[in-house]
Amino acid sequence: MSGRWVAIVGVALVGLLATGWLVAKSFESPAQREARARPPTPEPILADVTIGTLADEVTARAEVSPAIVDPLTPQALGERAVVTSRLMAPGSEVVPGSAPLAINGRPLFVLPGKFGFYRDILAGANGPDVAQLQDGLAAAGIATAPSEAGFYGPTTQAGVLALYRAAGSEPLMRAGATPPTQAPRIEPQQLPVVPLTEVVVAPHLPAKLASVPAVGTKLRAGQPVATLASGSFVAHAGVAPSVVNRIKRGMSAQLIADSGRAVPARVVLVRGKLRGSTEDLRDVTLAPSHGRLPALWNGTDVLARVTTRLVRRDVLIVPTRAIARDTDGRSYVLKRERDGAFVRITVNTLGSLAGRTAVEPQDAQALAATDRVRVG
Fold it and tell me: What is the DSSP code (8-state) at residue 188?
């Protein structure tokens, strides 16, 4: 009987305790309920201190190509002109007197000059086009008599003959009264002619043959038959019209290859729509600030990074929200110590951009790129 009473008493005590807890909870004071409902104290928001360049930049993909691209456009083409031979491969060096292709079975010679030839040059012709022909022959290493300056005489005709034969061809001939040599004339001889369809002028030589049409290509008057590339390499970046007005000639930039190699550059030209682009992009041309771009970059895409506004280089940077001012107007940040406490660091603000501020601590050792500051 004694054991049963002990069990009954124990159950009764547990019930009383539970009832007491429920009664006490139901009588919780308003202050206790408010304290329990209040959200926990928020943790401070921290941000890293960084070191670098505070600048506004525009980035775009850019294609590297030669600075100068000259189209070769003959002043005239024969009837039903078609490319019958590629005499030089793309990438070959074109010098004065080179013949990169044949049209209708006849070579097309490239000569330096300031204007296009405007007529067939026949024996006895006189004028600036003859003088330009003689300068072109001289650039090709073929001399003519000074006494024939501007006149298509015997030594100039002999030079034309040499030009064609060096290319493995023969010039067209027409009857004339002036023989190409000093041999006595017995009857009118056939003398070399320079047809308008067989010579084209290039303003920059030597150059690389950038493109040449395939054999069988039908040519149209007024259209280039090939292109030459010369000069150092530049990069053409495609920039959206809404952004291009922030870019000005002379701005500093970087060209960065996929390998990570970076070359300092500058903006040299901002112009119309990017040629060959399917998007509405503007052409921003960039050239190296010094030296040349690597030849291996030719024809590749690189990243162009244009600095449109520079605040400061190699400086400590914090979020602008981390800057506060005391009653004396001095700027400061709150740096978190290892023990979790915050210490005030007085700083000089050097400029702000896009929510970031460049700072300089009054004590140079008080703030470093490894620190964290409070922003909220």
Answer: P
How is 31-59 classified by DSSP, letter by letter? HHHHHHHSPPPPPPPEEE-EEEEEEEEEE
Are 287 and 232 spatial neighbours (Cβ–Cβ below 8 Å)? yes
Q: Walk along the chain (376 residues) and give the pLDDT tens digit of each residue.
A: 455 555 554 555 555 555 554 545 555 666 666 656 666 667 899 999 999 999 999 999 999 999 999 999 999 998 899 999 999 999 999 999 999 999 999 999 999 999 999 999 999 999 999 999 999 999 999 999 999 999 999 999 999 999 999 999 999 999 875 555 555 555 668 999 999 999 999 999 999 999 999 999 999 999 999 999 999 999 999 999 999 999 999 999 999 999 999 999 999 999 988 887 888 999 999 999 999 999 899 999 999 999 999 999 999 999 999 999 999 899 999 999 999 999 999 999 999 998 999 999 999 999 999 899 999 7
Tell me the residue type at 354.
Answer: A
Please report whether residue 170 resides in a domain: yes
* Predicted TM-score (pTM) of this structure: 0.65
Integer Cα distance of 242 and 268 in angstroms = 20
Give the single-character DSSP code of 350. E
Phi–psi pair at 87, nearest 5 degrees: -85, -15
Q: Domain total for the chain?
A: 3
Alpha carbon distance, N-terminus to C-terminus of the chain? 70
Helix/strand number for the chain, H first, E second: 5, 20
Range of the domain at 253: 56-65+231-311
Angle between helices 154-166 and 128-139 (to 10 degrees): 50
Q: Does a structural domain hold residue 14?
A: no
